[in-house]
Amino acid sequence: MSIVYGRRYDTGELCAIHIEHGLIQHVVPAWTTGRATDWPFVAPGLFDIQINGHSGIWYSHAGLTSNQVLQTLTAYFAHGVTRLCPTLITAGHDALAAGFAALREACEQVPWAGHMVPGFHLEGPFISPEDGPRGAHPLEHVRPADWDEFCQLQEIAGGRIKLVTLAPESPNAVAFIRRAVASGVVISIGHTAATRDQIQAAVDAGAALSTHLGNGAHGMMRRHPNYIWEQLGEPRLYASIIPDGHHLPASVVNAIVKTKTPYRTILTCDASGLAGCQSGFYELGSGRFELLPDGRIVIAGQQQLLAGSSLATDTCIASMIKMSGVSLRDAIDMATRTPARLLDQPQFRLQRGSRADLFLFRLPPDATRLDVVATIACGEVRYGSIAV
Ligand SMILES: [Zn+2]
Questions:
Q1: Rounded distance from Cα 190 to ligand 1 centre (Å)
Q2: Domain at 46-347: CATH code
Q3: How far is the CA of 372 from the centre of ligand 1 (A)?
């Protein structure tokens, strides 16, 4: 039996959480003779649906090994993350197959990795070939939606691909969406230049999410209708956003959260393989990039075109609060409960019977990131210390 003491992220009340056999056994009130605000906050472990790697390891790079995957997963405990979806972006079939094989091997190698990874995210290759919507995905590997190819990848992944981001205008997309949804895969709209009708057809077929809404888009577009408004105004779609302070201005973050509400807004960091790396220039397979001191990753030689984020989910929570004024509770829920609900996974809570995935953190005024004190996954301390 271990006991975690903290200040509930949702109510601010001090509590003692009793953990045994990987589960929360009791949550009882706690008292302090000091100041309640000296206690760290406690919240369910963060759940990020879009993570591309860490520490210089990219899931999409050739030669990925299961041990490298485990190294990245361990790194995310330091950010309060206890569940994440490793994400492979547009690549050739063999590269995707090798990537999914390594991810699967990691999940089957040690139980904690399997618990940390509820599913994989395939972002591409069935996306728009246009500059802008395509983002940093390599054009030569963009291709029409192909259900047979997906089934091969799903088999290699051991059935673990739970989320696919595609463009509704990709040839065969609507039939693909119907079959994927029927097989239990969640479909997200992203890296798209779709028309209103194409978006509606995708949603009618079962698409449920917009991937990093407001990014992966043309620099200039018609005022309306356009694919951002159409997704924003479609009540059946959840939206994921990257509130790292760089990908979206505060006004857009605000507009999306107000429209979708925290119930349908998912906070993701979309961290690249350069997360956790020092600032500087990096030569990667797809080009030369610069990681700027403020955490932005840009195509080397300019500072406008973003090529991913180096910041993790905890930083996005702090900047989300700063940008939009949402409560700590809502910001955390958008990175825990909402993604779990979308992917039909259990919503871990600070209550009896829940899996003991939680983290302790401090949030000083004007902090740019959460100061993570400890992370517990399945009842085990994976980062920091819970000693008081
Ligand atoms: Zn993307």
A1: 7
A2: 3.20.20.140
A3: 27
